[in-house]
Design a protein that fits this description.
Elements (H helix, E strand, L loop, with lengths): L1 H49 L6 H11 L3 E8 L2 E10 L2 E9 L6
Helix pairs in contact: 1-2
């Protein structure tokens, strides 16, 4: 009987660890998605600010962020350099990522 109880305990522990690892993996993938959304939004805003694309820089950033399931939380454009922050839900949490894009320094 004690062998059966130990086996059930080991199975329960393994299942708990597997569920936890899966949740952590999912959160990691979703966070990478949020970071990518921030990068894309910053590039879109910088392109609009430099004239390489049409539109208002922060509006373009918001459009790009929304297309990938994120929301633009902040946008600032100075010269042709755009700095953005985007947010997205990751399970019960809200993840935020920031990105900056523009021409290389000195250009």
């Amino acid at each position: 009987m004690s062998g059966s109880v130990a086996a059930v305990g080991v199975i329960a522990l393994t299942a708990t660890l597997a569920v936890g690892a899966a949740a952590a993996g999912t959160a990691g993938v979703r966070m990478a998605h949020v970071v990518g959304a921030a990068d894309a939004a910053a590039l879109a805003a910088a392109d609009a600010a430099s004239g390489a694309a049409t539109g208002v820089p922060c509006e373009r950033a918001a459009q790009v962020a929304e297309r990938v399931g994120a929301a633009l939380a902040a946008c600032e454009v100075a010269d042709a350099v755009a700095t953005v922050a985007v947010t997205a839900r990751v399970g019960p949490f809200v993840a935020q990522a920031r990105a900056r894009a523009g021409p290389p320094p000195g250009e």
